[in-house]
Amino acid sequence: MAPKRSVVLPIGLALVALLITACAGTARGTRSSVFETAQTVDMTDYSLSRADALVVIRYPAIIQADAELSYFHAFSINAIGGEVPPANRTKKVTTRIAQSVLAKSNYYVMSLYRELQRTLPEHTVLLSPHVVLWDAERGVYSRPILATEQIPSVLTIDFNVYSYPDPTELMDSPPVTFGDLVTPLFTVHGNHWMQPATHGLVLSSDPLLPTAWSLSREQALRGLESRLDFTPQPWQRPLDFIAYLNRRTAESPRLPVKGVGDARLELMAVEQYPVEKIRMDGALLANLADDFDRDPFAESLVRGAAANILEMLNAIDHDRATFFARHAALARFDPELATAFLARAGGESVRARLQLAEALIEAERRFVSAQSAGLYEGAYLGDFGFQMREMIEGEYRLLEDRREFARKQNVTTAFAALALAGSLYAASASGAVSGVAMQGFAGVSMLGSLWAMSKTLETRAESAQMSENFLALIAPALERQISVQMEWLESQERISAIGFAEFRNKTLTLYQARIRSLQGRFEENCRFEQPGSGVAGRWYGGCRDGLAQGRGYGVLRDAAGGSVEYLGEAAAGLADGIGGMIVYRPDTAGGVYLEGGFAAGRPHGVLRVDEPGARPQLREFRAGREVGGASPREWRRLEF
Amino acid sequence: MRRVHTMMRDGLRGLLCVIALTLLLSGPAAAAISFEALEGLPPGDQYRQLSLLMLITGGTDPALFDVLQPVIERQGEDDPLDLELDDFVTPLIRIVDRETILASAAGMFRFAHDNSAEIQQRLTRIARENPILVSMVDVNEMAADAIIIRNSIADTIEYTESIDAEQAEARLRAFRAQTVYLRNMMEFNAFQDELNAITDEAIVDLGGRLDAYQRMFSENIDEDLVRRRVESAQIMNEQTGKRFDDQAMANNAELLMMLILMESQVY
């Protein structure tokens, strides 16, 4: 494996670029996020399972050396907030900005982690750092470093900060993360059964929406196919941001969207989070390195974002949201039990074994939680965090100087920033100031740029040390197979991190020694059918004469690319009784969800109907035909 | 971990049943069980007797009393249920005399059923007043004893001719299912203890390595870390005094949880 480099290693150099880029948005930033409208709420968890995490936070942490060039290229091509001219895409400053995005994401994500961890029950908020990779087939992609995403979770948050790659586009005030300015990108998603109409996608930053939608759809279909083929699900969703950089997904014509917080889980649409350049409270940044009791990022954004996440968690049926993730988790070490679980088989033998298995997953969750806490300590409370705060404080002071300079010269701040950037870039490139616009400010801006250069050099030295410490702190939390080259020792000493695999071996050995046999068997080739589909699907559950009978889960896919998933009661191979059914058609954006009574494979009785872009409705059906509205009292819901 | 089902298979089964029954019935609580009789025992014995009684009778369908009624009536003709303790001194007598055992079992079921709330209150009170004694109680050991006695009672019902087999079948199946449930709870507790130990060890190891790496790259003493260690030590010292109280209440809570779960099972 090619050596991995810390994303913070070149951060000093990146500062040059960031100084330039940041000045683009020199002053303008919003002081109140759209997340601020959320009220402080307490989280209520009625989940029956002890195994689940509530939130997994994914973020880009490190990049493999082989992937850097491709990542830089993708970063410049797929800019958010504008199009970078081809001539500017290969500049070194762009690569430094791309590196800084990863470095700062490592830091700012910890604010979100800490805020959620403070509010939610112990061991229910987990971090999933990703390594950015490249191969010829997939292009730039990411995969998790820890086993976090194997733990069932109600919600998954993708988080990173962003800076526009082209320092020449200064006057347009593009998104930037520098000093007191932070541009966060989010997506929030879960299992597709949580909200079938949007494939489980709950919220997305505006530019990432088509990619996030496409990934959620792919995740749902891959899961469906693995259950159809009776095979494990090997597909790992990359970070939405990295997938966006790799291949900008074509705009889907009509995705169901709504504003942040609007009719949450009532209107079946994705909350669209605008790109916000948040301006943090300067008073909290002026002495950030020494006094960080009050986190400026938490104050201006994260607290509101966390309150929104809590509201989401309160609105979601956790057992429903994690049902299939629990099945996947069980299938990893006990396929027989996983099938019984999917079939929702009763009986003491299943209950007792499930209790052991869930305890095992809960133990893994505790272990991953400890790894997450280690990451937090390293990246926020440790040297990395300290020096990152010093850097942000320095950036802020520089930015304030430019703002002051603009006020004195009676020019717009952006123009003043342009002067700084131009002179700095020109000075560093050729030692000469050029450009008509700069001539009037050459003296002042040169002074500023020299100061900035000297600061940059200092920080550059600090950043090398910072990267070492970061690696040292992160290393014990990494998976066993990930080893880190300790560059600062200039040796080939490799430190193997304590392995999750080692821990899992011990717990699985204990599990194997303690389990008893399950009573009852499930046929592997039991058929599930749907009127009019013309194909037979697979049924997990009770079976009679090779056809679905009793409780269980059925899945099928027709020749046209449509699919049906059903969880509930069946008779003679067809949905029959109380159940929930997701119908995907290739020509529609999301899934249609039906929950309630079925007879002979068709909706029959009172059903809840969820469609993309619409509010759920209770409708009455007769043999598949809708005959009118219905009262909630007549509706019988599916119990997970 | 003790595996009860294995023990049931070996030749010691009868002997264990006898010993277990002796344990249960050799006190005044056995034959004519009453709170007054129990109060004469040391707190630890009281706690054990009451716990065992609840675990043996927990989750029992009251309809099982009806099944045992003919035995009680027959016993009543021969002996008005005022068996003295001495009658139980010889284990052999109890094994042979199935109806006597069943009559005593019926008495236990009825007493536990009629006084469930009071028994649970007493258990909690004893745990609170005698934390050191109760902290040493092994709930799983008691559950293992209870399982032996429950199986013994179930087997006796099955092989007692005076009991209507057809009438007893469904009740007996439910009673045996409850016993399996109790066994599974007991096994889960043991599993959870071992799993927690493995997890705690792995987490401690993780933290230790983290600290070691931190020290490698810091020539200066990490004052913050030292301060945290000192504070941790102080907290641990403070907690030592509370340990017995906490363990006693934890044991009691575990026991009560077992009872609640057994009661919540459908007959």
Which pair of protein chains has the largest interface, and what are the residue counts?
A-B, 34 and 24 residues
Helix and strand content put the structural class of chain B at mainly alpha
The profile of the biggest β sheet of chain B is: none
- Given the structure, what is the number of helices of chain A? 15
Strand content of chain B: under 5%
- Strand elements of chain B, count: 0
Oligomer classification:
heterodimer
What would you report as the Rg of chain B, rounded to the nearest angstrom?
24 Å
The low-confidence parts of chain A are 1-27, 418-498
Low-confidence stretches of chain B: 1-31, 79-90, 212-221
**How many strands appear in the DSSP assignment of chain A?**
22
The termini of chain A sit apart by: 43 Å
| Computed CA radius of gyration of chain A, to the nearest angstrom | 27 Å
On the 0 to 100 scale, the average pLDDT of chain A is 78
Q: Which labels suit this protein?
A:
heterodimer; A: 640 residues; alpha+beta; nine-stranded mixed beta sheet; 22 strands; 40% helix; 22% strand; globular; disordered N terminus; B: 267 residues; mainly alpha
Textual characterization of the structure:
- The complex is a heterodimer of chains A (640) and B (267).
- In chain A, strands 1, 2, 3, 4, 5, 7, 8, 9 and 10 form a nine-stranded mixed sheet that branches. A nine-stranded antiparallel sheet of chain A has the order 14-15-16-17-18-19-20-21-22.
- With 640 residues, chain A is of the alpha+beta class.
- Residues 1-27 and 418-498 of chain A have low confidence and may be disordered.
- Chain A has helices at 11-24, 68-77, 92-119, 209-229, 240-246, 282-285, 296-315, 318-333, 335-342, 348-381, 383-409, 413-430, 436-439, 442-474, 500-514, and strands at residues 4-5, 53-64, 125-135, 139-144, 153-161, 181-182, 184-189, 201-205, 257-259, 270-273, 278-279, 483-485, 494-496, 526-529, 536-544, 547-557, 563-571, 574-584, 592-599, 602-610, 617-622, 625-629.
- Chain A is globular.
- In chain A, helix 10 (348-381) packs across helix 11 and helix 11 (383-409) packs across helix 12 (413-430).
- Chain B is an all-alpha fold and 267 residues long.
- In chain B, 81% of the residues lie in helices and 0% in strands.
- Chain B contains 13 helices and no strands.
- Chain B has helices at residues 4-9, 13-25, 28-31, 35-39, 43-57, 63-78, 91-96, 98-114, 116-129, 131-135, 139-159, 165-216, 223-264.
- Chain B is globular.
- Chains A and B meet through helix 10, helix 14 and helix 15 of A and helix 12 of B.
